[in-house]
Amino acid sequence: MGHGGGGRLTQMLIEQLIQPALTNPSLDRLHDGAQLEVGGARVAFSTDSYVISPLFFPGGDIGSLAVHGTVNDLAMCGAQPLALSVGMIIEEGLPMETLWRVVQSIRDAAGAVGVPIVTGDTKVVDRGKGDGIFLNTTGLGLIPQGIQIDPQRAEPGDVVIISGPLANHGIAIMSVREGLAFETALESDSAPLHTLVADLLAVAGSAVHVLRDPTRGGVASALNEIAQAARVGILLEEKKLPLDEAVRGACEILGLDPLYVANEGKCLVIVAADYATLALEAMRRHPLGVQAAMIGQVTSEHPGSVVMRSRIGGMRSVDMLSGEQLPRIC
């Protein structure tokens, strides 16, 4: 299960087993999606699978999550979504009412984004072998001219911005699994980020070097992947990390580090320092970026790794987890 947690074991599985067998320039960038030249246009192409438990959770469900997740992968390439596919692997015995709720959620989420489901597939597996339903979504998007988003473009001096509070999705899922009750309702942050990214690119354009949605493995894993791809260091400031108080309390109770907890409606932005303030202001004007914050910077020191300055001024390494904090989170 640790190989699916988004941390070091996932990275090793991809880099040592999968990537060498399938290597090509598009895949080797290890971005959220491939960027392809098609008939003179630049197209983003991404796929993802969803195996979340439970299927329905505060703030969303597997259907809306699948749509939002793939739309966000396209957005992290700088693309606006054009079309999606949906593959359903359904376990024998799943109530038709449950399936209908999931299908309605997919329809509503895709409708809200304004992107059609243009093709798909269904399979049924034996009872006990599918955990209800698994979804796979694939998306196509169009990348505007002049936009080049790539994890290898992170440069010393760039500023790191997060679009809002960390860890809401993972903690919402865990609270349901463990039957935990808090004074403040915890909800997933699952949301489509393509309009937020469009607003960001409208003011910062090519100064936006990297975009990444910190899903499995959280902010820590996403930033480590970027640092390794660009051979740069990243310095985080703990006191600048936005965190809802309910989530902070839940993490303390559960013994979880919010840097490693999954998010489904947040994005990391690495932008040239000269455009950082413009980028932050544009994000804060968007409903999904009201609490955006500058949380660190890219540095030439400690290339390939992430460190964090604590609230009291000490420094600690922010490495990838070997396994996972939360299984089956997306």
UniProtKB/TrEMBL annotation:
- Pfam families (UniProt xref): AIRS, AIRS_C
- Domain of life, per lineage: Bacteria
For this protein, the record's SUPFAM superfamilies field holds: PurM C-terminal domain-like, PurM N-terminal domain-like
List the InterPro entries: HypE, PurM-like_C_dom, PurM-like_C_sf, PurM-like_N, PurM-like_N_sf
User: Residues in domain PurM-like N-terminal?
Assistant: 32-143
Residue intervals of the PurM-like C-terminal domain: 155-307
By sequence similarity, the record places it as follows: Belongs to the HypE family.
Tell me the protein's name.
Hydrogenase expression/formation protein HypE
